[in-house]
Amino acid sequence: MNAPLRRVAAACLVLFGLLLVNVNYVQVVKAEDYRKDSRNFRGLLRSYAHERGPIVLAGGGASAVAVDKATPSEQLKFLRTYPGGTAFAHVTGFASLVYGRTGIEQAENDVLSGESDNLFVRRLSDYVTGRKPEGGRVVLTLQQAAQRAALAGLQGKRGAVVALDPRTGAILAMVSTPSFDPARLSSHSEKQIRDYYKRLQNDPADPMLNRAVSQTYPPGSTFKVITSAAALSSGKFTPGTRIPSPTELDLPQTDRNLKNFGGESCGDGKTTTLADALRISCNTAFGQLGMNLGGDALRDQAEKFGLGDDGMRVPLRVARSVFPDELSPPQEAQSAIGQYDVRVTPLQMAMVAAGVANGGSIMTPYLVREVQAPDLSTLSQTRPEVYKRAVSQDVADQLTAMMQQVVANGTARSAQIPGVAVAGKTGTAQHAEGQAPHAWFIAFAPAQDPQVAIAVLVEDGGSAGSEATGGRVAAPIARDVMRAVLGQ
Amino acid sequence: MSAQTIAPGAGAGRRGIELLLIGFAVAIAIVAYAAVGIGQDGRIPTGTIGYGAGLALLFGLAHLVVRRFAPYADPLILPCVAMLNGLGLVMIRRLDLAEAERARQAASALPRADAPLQLIWTAIAVAAFIAVLVVVRDHTRLARYAYTSAAAGLVLLLLPAIPGIGATINGARLWIRVGPMTVQPSEAAKVLLMVFFASYLVSKRDVLSLASRRVAGIDLPRARDLGPILVAWAASLAVLVREKDLGSSLLFFGIFIVMLYVATERTSWLLIGVGLFGLGSFSAYTLFGHVARRVDTWLDPFATASTTGYQLVQGLFGFGTGGISGTGLGKGQPGIVPYAKTDFIMAAIGEELGLIGVMAVLLLFALVVERGLRSGLACRDSFGKLLATGLSFALALQVFVIVGGVTGLIPLTGVTLPWLSYGGSSVVMNWVLIALLLRISDAARRPAPAPVAPEKARAALAEAQTTVVRR
Hints:
The complex is a heterodimer of chains A (about 500) and B (about 475).
Chain A: H1 2-29, H2 31-36, H3 42-47, E1 55-57, E2 64-70, E3 78-81, H4 85-92, E4 95-96, E5 100-101, H5 103-107, H6 109-112, H7 120-129, E6 137-140, H8 144-154, E7 159-164, E8 171-177, H9 182-185, H10 190-202, H11 224-233, E9 242-244, E10 248-250, E11 257-259, E12 271-273, H12 274-279, H13 283-293, H14 295-304, H15 329-336, H16 346-357, E13 361-363, E14 368-372, E15 378-381, E16 386-389, H17 393-409, E17 423-429, E18 438-445, E19 452-458, H18 468-486
Chain B: H1 15-41, H2 48-69, H3 77-105, H4 114-135, H5 146-158, E1 166-169, E2 172-178, E3 181-183, H6 185-209, E4 211-215, E5 218-221, H7 227-243, H8 246-264, H9 267-287, H10 289-299, H11 310-322, H12 345-378, H13 382-406, H14 424-445, H15 454-470
């Protein structure tokens, strides 16, 4: 009986050997795959076990826009709440059990979750002292009042507002509408999260889209600021230079003519000054100017303002704004007035305004002013830096004066603020046959000591046929936000 | 059938070593229990002392009884079992916390905590262990009750199939209701049937070893001797069909075949057994949806990761997340896996204690199995040899079936992981199994009669003679 018994003993060893080999395969070879599988939500759950850092506004602890609240639960010890609500939703993003993270929650996740290298020493001391690990704090550049004014202005519309401090690049307001409630995507109820997410996804207005940075639009007449900058920078033009301004501009190689809004004529229907052309937003004058300057000159100038830059982060990813290549003369004329294939984000247009405001230098835009340790000590601070020099100081001064005229007695009178000189430019961008054009407005104030530069976009907000509608719809929103920033 | 002599050491049974190792096992269990609390909320749980004292008392008592009633028994088996049982209690307690947590989130009523119940079951199990060692002074006497245990075993095995008594839990009908509790009688049936198999096979081994003809170098048994194996096969299939208990069915048949092989030393029985197993498996796969589903899930669990494969996939994720060193006790999410306390307790160990913990557990089992088989080798009588083989192999097969199942090595069949899984019947009967193994081990390692003390020597000789006569 001993011989078969020994064989049974050997067989048992083989069975255990197989198990040992297999667990090594599962826990070593396949471990990485299993750990990272999207259906394995253990990692996500673990991140709920310790306190995630808050996202706050500068100036006071009461202004947290995203903050963890302790719950009596042991597994999900903290619930992410968003006191900033819909006004800050696109900037904060959400931190969801089911759908991961977006916005600052994603861009600054290392800091918020406490896994940043900046927090290494702290983590080490947490480990030694047994203190519960905690995430760092992200301090935003956004201003509560500006943000609220922007949300109020965009109420009931689809659009975006971006306001910058032209001297630093700090983003003072960034709002996109329609918005959503990030708290409902960051709750602990999987069903609630899924239901709400599906509803948002099925909404044709796409509430989760951050229109300020993730979507590009034709800039329409606001692009004339860039065309003017190209003209002035060429040295061949001054604001007083008279340029042709026919009632209809015959576009070569086509049977179509470029007209002004409503078929109006500019000035005497023959020539007008560059400054006047901008003030009344004369399409034929700028179309001709574009053809004279040429596509390359326009593109050079556009790229000096930041178009064509791919991969910009503020730290939210910014979609690439583009000025098209290889233009025929009619396309040059269309592009010069911000139509054809020119596409920009609202942030890009705010940077155009900011560049002019800041004497020709565009500062790199940023949302995160400071990263702090849980004890409020500063870990890192964003230092303002020059992004690009768009135009010379002289050209910037000339453009400022021209844009002041637009607000003072041009298409953007509704942007006037009593006692403050405002410089701006309206736009009404056609984007699809039979649809109302997008209404645009870019501006900065005060003109001689700029503290805020802004771009406002309202989708389908204008009405075809009148250039002034862009100004009527978008300019008042910009005015309110600028007043909020200036404390007026 | 020569008895392998094991040189008795200075302390013969080496009971001191056993006590030391038990102390070590209890210490590890206490530390693990405290670690769960620290991992969960940074505090040493208040129950640590009571829990530690309970384990120390139970296992200490078991040790004292072994020292008194089976002084020559293998000193490694009991500490290994104590370690596994202690760790099992810790994991069940840990999963209790996870369930309570989930209930809190769902704002539903707190579920019953299973760890205290399991501690009570462990106490009952150790009592049963002691009772077996005290009552069964000579394992060979069990052979007298072969047919009684066969009848009892069969009744227990088929009891759940009887309407009104049986209870279906999680799709398998392998429980019976006893008052407020449900008992899994197949655990007891397993041990009883092994006693019967051992006795029956030893008495019939000469007949069963007879060959009728030789085919391809293998001696085939006579057709009329095929009766027993066909009965065992039919019974296994009955369990499978009536109770949908794939695991028990597989275990019974596997144990029977191996004991038959060891008793007869005929490879042909093994081949016939494997053939019948293959036939049974194939028909079960084609005939029964639940068997086919198990196999399909095993082949590609990720294809049905959110339905039938969910448990297996989440278990694999647990193992993967644990990696080599594990998340640490109380720091993983083992509660995600359904039935983590019973069938999938290894996934919880894999997640929180990592590959290291899983391998340690497997090695503990391997140690018990190999020590048990060694006792069988050393045992002087055929019945003891065969019973030790059956008991040890049953343990090995059960561990292989469930651990192989949860790690995706073989199709998943629901059986408990001895001493670790939650379940009263399982823990009690596995302690009884160990008591029998220690009883045989004690007999095997008892020093051969020496002329030192004539009185004792005569007694031992007398015992030895009765054995020889009866066999």
